[in-house]
Design a protein that fits this description.
With 338 residues, this protein is α/β, with parallel strands linked by helices. It is 32% helix and 14% strand. The protein has 2 domains: 41-171, Aldolase class I (TIM Barrel), CATH 3.20.20.70; 179-184 and 191-338, no CATH class. The protein has an 8-stranded mixed β-sheet with strand order 1-2-3-4-5-6-7-8. It is globular and about 50 Å long. The protein binds iron/sulfur cluster (2 copies).
Length: 338
């Protein structure tokens, strides 16, 4: 099976994977794995989805980041998480199923009008995503596509994404390097560089999404808003209320007051299309942040949570960490899920 799939021309770049900014250069078709620890692309799940933009959403297993707050940790960290995934799916068959679902009465009633690729990170499966889109447009040339991204990809990959997408939902968690590293295990600069590129295609941007985590990236709200406003104050921004999850399972959720404050800060920065979403005020208990590898308070707190989960390498730098293939965060099992 693997030998047969590995012969597909459109998968050949996985012999030397350079899809995301880690540029691991591993041969994923020969069993090697990089920071995402994914070999062949695999579907985690797929279904019609009512959240805007309403869609047929395809969740891909694997992620190139190791974010402490991950809501989809079981698929993002597959196979280390022990999570269940649907597995390899023929792109033509998936495209057929997706187009049918969009055209079905349930899809029409929901207002679902596009494929939505999420994860995990779809960037780890970019050639597969492109193939599904190609097949879907063989059936319906007008098929719309949303690409949901953490922004951590090469400019070449982003260029490919811009070529086939109708819309992009783009996460920004921090401007500060330390906060981004402590939270996600990766640098912020590639994400910000890519946000700048996407901002040059405002017709493609559904919205920038900013997860608001009290005490961790709370102080990042203003720099993020200023960064976006400097690109173009008319770009849409959605603040998402953090809810306790994964390594941050005991951390308090974002309060309603904090979400209102985020919108107010954005308006003060000049942003004109701002809203917030999510379920605020979920209870939790914050710990004292004292991880000495960071000097910024939010990063110290995130680093402290990462340490408690077993991460020993700070500042976090997951692709270059000696523990990258035996990572306690990647296999962390939360005791609750919100
Ligand atoms: S982490 Fe990125 S570059 Fe490395 S193998 Fe995965 S997708 Fe490829
Ligand atoms: S142990 Fe290493 S690979 Fe795992 S989260 Fe920490 S820095 Fe990243």
């Amino acid at each position: 099976m693997v030998e047969e799939l590995a012969s597909f021309p459109w998968l050949q770049e996985l012999h030397n994977c350079q899809l995301c900014e880690w540029r691991c250069g591993v041969d994923r078709l020969a069993g090697e794995v990089g920071a995402c620890r994914i070999g062949l692309p695999q579907i985690a799940s797929r279904s019609l989805h009512p959240s805007p933009p309403q869609s047929y959403t395809i969740f891909l297993a694997g992620c190139n980041l190791r974010c402490l707050f991950c809501q989809n940790w079981d698929i993002a960290h597959f196979p280390d998480s022990g999570g269940q995934v649907d597995g390899w799916y023929d792109p033509a068959q998936l495209a057929h199923e997706a187009v049918q679902a969009l055209q079905s009465p349930a899809g029409q009633l929901m207002g679902a009008d596009r494929l939505f690729f999420s994860g995990g990170s779809p960037t780890c499966s970019l050639p597969y995503v492109e193939r599904v889109v190609y097949e879907a447009r063989q059936i319906n040339p007008d098929t719309k596509v949303n690409y949901d991204t953490n922004g951590f990809m090469t400019p070449a990959s982003l260029q490919r994404v811009l070529e086939f997408t109708t819309s992009i939902t783009f996460d920004i968690r921090a401007v500060d390097e330390q906060v981004q590293r402590a939270l996600s295990g990766a640098p912020s600069s590639p994400v910000l560089r890519n946000a700048e590129i996407v901002a040059q295609h405002p017709d493609k941007l559904w919205e920038f999404r900013v997860l608001v985590i009290p005490g961790i990236n709370e102080e990042q709200i203003e720099p993020i808003c200023q960064f976006i406003a400097d690109l173009d104050p008319s770009l849409p921004v959605c603040f998402l209320a953090f809810r306790p999850n994964f390594v941050l399972e005991q951390h308090p959720g974002a309060s309603l007051d904090l979400m209102h404050r985020a919108v107010s800060i954005a308006c003060d920065c000049g942003l004109r299309k701002v809203h917030w979403a999510g379920h605020p005020d979920l209870p939790g208990t914050s710990v004292q942040g004292d991880c000495p590898a960071y000097s910024v308070a939010g990063a110290q707190l995130a680093g402290t949570y990462a340490q408690a989960a077993g991460c020993v390498n700070h500042p976090r730098d997951c692709a270059n960490c000696p523990q990258r293939h035996n990572c306690p965060v990647k296999s962390y099992q939360p005791s609750r899920r919100t």
